[in-house]
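Colleagues,

For the teaching module next term, I've prepared a clean inverse folding example: a structure given as tokens, and then the sequence designed for it. I'd like students to try predicting residues themselves before seeing the answer, so please don't circulate the second half yet.
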């Protein structure tokens, strides 16, 4: 199956042709396909990420290969992660975030829960998760090339033809990071739907060095003679099991089980494929914290972090891993997207709050299928006000 684009051809790839087409792609793209998408095609997705139920298609474009993530909608899955589920993001995680951030405003929390109850019913009825997520990495924050490297209109038309019953979605478009993606997608009929507020650190510009918090964290680190940072070059299963346990302690146990529940096998794929680089904080022979880097076209994220929550709080493990990540981004000359959450903490360290959006095309769908996206756009108006008002 193919669709013509000026300058090249779009082609949904059959597995038999994959190795031939991969050989023509940049090395980084080959690593991403082999470590992230291909395993999800060879096994059912929930075997690799427990709370993600998707199908994956690969699409050849002139510059590289894209991953297309297709959420499965025939069965409802509790705790489905927001990384592959609009329902998980806007209904389940929205409800969780409201309770977490606005729990003290009881009247607002009660009102929000009623809104989520109604929205959830409408979203189930209107098959909200029936989407195609373009170039979705299944991390909390999605990254793209700095500028679009294919014709967005041609691809939109291609996807409409091959997935006529699905909305087309690009996750995590932050205008300050991807202004050209935003402008071109909007010009091609995509709706701008608020996603969340994220925190960007201009590490090359030294934004963190103009804050007193860095000095305080540096003094803390200097006192921790018993702790040392080191990259995990060839981690064994025992080390990766420990890393995964620390991630689970933070993201699943302290926060929400709606965060992606990665398995050891999936983590091994990402590490062995060079997609994620792990840096661990050691206390003698024990890993007590870690941060995992993913870099694409000048932007760094750390979608995998964790620390031992049983460790004495005075040791400041979260402060140490945050500082280490900021310094690594500075060393590499990368803009650091620190994702959402811990707003006050990140602001004190020089990060600036910016809004992030999902870009959605649903004009080819009947009105009742478009309804959830229309409602989320309406709800986003007071949501953005609350986010800014309370510094969430």
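(Answer key — instructors only)
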């Amino acid at each position: 199956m193919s669709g013509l684009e000026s300058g090249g051809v779009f082609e949904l790839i059959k597995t038999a042709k994959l190795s031939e087409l991969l050989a023509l792609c940049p090395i980084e793209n080959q690593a991403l396909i082999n470590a992230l998408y291909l395993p999800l095609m060879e096994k059912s997705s929930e075997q690799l990420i427990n709370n993600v139920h998707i199908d994956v298609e690969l699409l050849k474009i002139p510059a590289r290969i894209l991953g297309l993530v297709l959420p499965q909608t025939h069965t409802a899955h509790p705790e489905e992660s927001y990384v592959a589920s609009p329902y998980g993001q806007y209904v389940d995680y929205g409800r969780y975030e409201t309770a977490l951030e606005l729990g003290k405003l009881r009247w607002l929390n009660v009102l929000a829960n009623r809104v989520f109850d109604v929205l959830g019913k409408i979203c189930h009825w209107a098959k909200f998760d029936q989407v195609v997520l373009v170039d979705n990495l299944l991390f909390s924050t999605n990254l793209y090339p700095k500028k679009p490297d294919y014709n967005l209109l041609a691809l939109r038309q291609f996807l409409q033809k091959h997935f006529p019953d699905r909305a087309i979605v690009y996750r995590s478009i932050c205008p300050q990071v991807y202004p050209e993606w935003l402008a071109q997608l909007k010009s091609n009929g995509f709706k701008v739907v608020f996603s969340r507020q994220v925190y960007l650190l201009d590490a090359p510009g030294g934004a963190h060095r103009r804050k007193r918090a860095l000095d305080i964290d540096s003094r803390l680190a200097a006192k921790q003679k018993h702790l040392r940072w080191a990259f995990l070059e060839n981690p064994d299963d025992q080390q990766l099991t420990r890393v995964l346990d620390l991630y689970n302690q933070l993201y699943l146990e302290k926060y929400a089980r709606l965060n992606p529940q990665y398995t050891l096998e999936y983590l091994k794929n990402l590490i062995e494929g060079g997609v994620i680089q792990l840096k661990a904080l050691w206390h003698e022979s024990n890993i007590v914290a870690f941060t995992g880097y993913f870099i694409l076209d000048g932007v760094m994220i750390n979608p995998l972090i964790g620390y031992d929550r049983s460790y004495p709080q005075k040791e400041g493990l979260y402060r140490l891993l945050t500082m280490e990540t900021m310094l690594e981004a500075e060393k590499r000359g990368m803009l650091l997207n620190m994702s959402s959450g811990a707003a006050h903490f990140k602001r004190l360290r020089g990060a600036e709050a910016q809004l992030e959006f999902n870009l959605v095309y649903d004009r080819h769908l009947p009105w009742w299928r478009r309804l959830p996206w229309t409602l989320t756009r309406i709800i986003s108006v007071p949501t953005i006000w609350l986010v800014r008002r309370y510094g969430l």
